[in-house]
Amino acid sequence: MSLSSAFLKSFDALPTTSDKEVFLLAVSGGVDSMVLVNLFLQQGIAFEIAHCNYQLRGEASHLDEELVRDWAQQHAIPFHVQRFDTKTIRAELKKGTQETARILRYDWFRSLMQKHQFKAIVTAHHANDNAETVLMNLFKGTGIDGLTGMQVFAHSIFRPLLSIFKTEIETYALEHQIPYRQDASNLSDDYTRNAIRLNVIPTIEKLFPYAMQAINTSIHHLNDAASIYHDQMDHFKKKLLFANSTETKIPIRLLIAQPAYSTILFELLKPYGFNSKQQKSILELLQAQNGKMVLSSTHRVFKFNHHLVITPIEQDQTRFYVIQEGDEKVHLDKGLLDISILQGPMNAIPNELYTAYIARESLEFPLLLRHWKEGDYFYPLGMNNKKKKLSDFFIDQKVPMHLKETTWVLESNQRIVWIVGMRLDERFKIKNSTTAITKIAFKAQ
Predict the structure, then answer these.
(1) Residue 181 domain flag
(2) How confident is the model at residue 334 (pLDDT cuts 50, 70, 90)?
(3) Same domain, yes or no, for 278 and 420?
């Protein structure tokens, strides 16, 4: 099948289209997107162009914009452009460059969709991109959904080149003398996708020359398998999830009686924000004592009386942060937690107001950093294991109202470890037998 035929065939995946409907094409100026706009133009399909200038590559970014703008003007195609201060926004979001750019472009594309009522957002993703996506998802352990790759049409995004390979696109551009610009950042392996593309795939293709075609064939088969898989998962959700207004329960005995129950449990918990990295800890809950729990960014799951219980982490006007074992820095809205491991024993503990030295063996990860709330209690260090409400502790310490409202507490398995900047809990103190010490330092910013 020719490239043009494969392109036209992809439109079968779209809902019924009328002649009056207009597409929004995401065009970077690279070979893939420039072939894409030429195919739309050649077939007489109505479209407009959206170009993102992330301003990350100096003059090269502006030359990309100039190429796309000139092409749009030459062919009388409506042109939308948005320049982003990506470096500043990346720092504010505390995310990587590629993730920040993705958030920015799709937020903007969807705003244009809403304003102009386009048929779909059209991207130039191709078969090689799909294979790379599947490989990355395989390494991340995302489950069967990650192995089905991108879809030709999903969530208002249309990918008409998804069955076409990169070499075919480059050949088409050469044969039709289509202008495009090479993004130098694509030749760097600083980003995960580029590292896969430049280092991993060439090694695979030395052993399996048709690896890209084989992966895309597998994607097709896995999509069929995923359809059957999800039908079964819907059955298990009805059988194993018992929900009320405050919590959802999974009966452990009923769960483990099912075939492949660990996979079923993974799928049951995925909508609550739990991921494959937590699977081992979650499975350990099945044999754990009551109260043992695992946290996602939005929910906790804990063992209680032959059930796994899922509840949302309370969210009010305050924020909370989940700290996983191995985290070294946690960025807060107005501060930073530095976390390090020291070797014990420690003869003298430094008297540092905003630093806690905690017996590592006493901590159960993940930890939760949150603002205090009414009803909280702990066992203040130096008070002979006497339980005290935080509200009473604040009164005793004469903590002003405005400071009390912004006080952070560090929690381990529903036990308060540290009132940040004030007092450690007796249960987490360093002992003579302590061999490993977790040092947590709060720094205001």
Answers:
(1) yes
(2) confident
(3) no
Cβ burial of 131 (10 Å; 0-12, 13-18, 19+) is: buried
CA distance linking residue 191 with residue 193, whole number of Å: 6
For residue 1, the model assigns a pLDDT of 78
Is residue 361 within 8 Å of residue 415, measured between CB atoms?
no
Within this chain, do residues 177 and 60 fall inside the same structural domain, yes or no? yes
Are residues 345 and 290 both part of a single domain?
Answer: no
The DSSP element (H or E) to which 196 belongs, if any, is: none
Q: Are residues 416 and 359 in the same domain?
A: yes
CA gap 308, 299 in Å, rounded: 12
> Domain check: are 136 and 168 in the same one?
yes
Q: Where are the beta strands (DSSP E) in 223-366?
A: 242-243, 248-251, 293-295, 299-304, 307-312, 320-323, 329-332, 335-343, 355-359
pLDDT digits (tens, 9 = 90+) for 285-320: 999 888 788 888 889 898 888 999 998 876 544 568
Question: Do 84 and 188 belong to one domain?
Answer: yes
What does the pLDDT look like over 151-160, one tens digit per residue? 999 999 999 9
Backbone phi, then psi, for 208, in 5-degree steps? -130, 90
Confidence category of residue 219, pLDDT binned at 50, 70, 90? very high
Instruction: Please report the pLDDT score of residue 317 as a whole number.
Output: 43
In angstroms, the CA 83 to CA 306 distance is 55
Question: Tokens 């075609």 — which residue?
Answer: 213
Residues 162 and 204 in one domain: yes
The residue assigned the tokens 């819907």 is 234
Q: Are 207 and 200 in contact (CB under 8 A)?
A: no
- Beta strand residue intervals within 223-371, DSSP E: 242-243, 248-251, 293-295, 299-304, 307-312, 320-323, 329-332, 335-343, 355-359, 367-371
User: Which of the pair, 186 or 49, is modelled with greater confidence?
Assistant: 49
Distance of alpha carbon 387 from alpha carbon 32, whole angstroms? 65
Q: Cβ-count burial of 286 within 10 angstroms (0-12 exposed, 13-18 middle, 19+ buried)?
A: middle
CATH code of the domain in which 7 resides: 3.40.50.620
Write down the mean pLDDT value for the chain.
90
Q: Which domain holds residue 136?
A: 3-219
In a domain, residue 224? The reply is no
Same domain, 328 and 352: yes
**Residues 339 and 439: beta-carbon distance below 8 Å:** yes
Domain count of the chain? 3
Write the CATH number for 337: 3.50.40.10
**Across the chain, how many H-helices and E-strands are there?**
15, 22
